[in-house]
Predict the structure.
Amino acid sequence: MTDATVPPMTRIQQKNRDLILQSALEAFSANGFRGATIDQIARLAGLSKPNVLYYFASKDDIHKTLLTTLLDMWLAPMQQIDAEGDPLTEVLGYVQAKMQMSRDFPRESRLFAYEILQGAPHLTQILGGGLREIVERAVAVLEGWMDQGKLARTDPRHLIFSIWAMTQHYADFEIQVRAVLGPGRDPIQEGGAFLDALYRKLLTP
């Protein structure tokens, strides 16, 4: 049966598939790829092991699917940068979108960071292809704005790297950030305001 003739999943099948991925996220976040097992994922999902393997061929398949989904989610705000919009507003909006993702998806960020630290064995092909293409499209928009004098001149690729590092730090090192700030502080709100001021100063012509 070809992909073109595969029937769409039912509502229950889609629900089970999503449940497996969420349970896998919890298992991988707690135990790493090597420590997590199909049995753990099935138990967390409230499904049998054969049922999990009905949707995914292996633990590796689950992990790769989860990481690919997460990468698509991370890159979505970058693809929403509007070349026709106000340059500073668009870049600062991207920074704030990434900060909100650090607030809302800290486990996902840490799982992705762990994969990168391991040499990205499940994402090598994607990182060398789709990711670079998306980044290069954003770079072309940034360079266009810089050429027009609408943004201060800086290296657009390293600008993107810095935004990733600065925003995802609040998810990947959440415990450290909260320990340093102390109780009663909002790391995302405070960090968002700091990064807005930082990039506004850097990029204003």
Remarks:
- The radius of gyration is 20 Å.
- The first helix runs from residue 11 to 35.
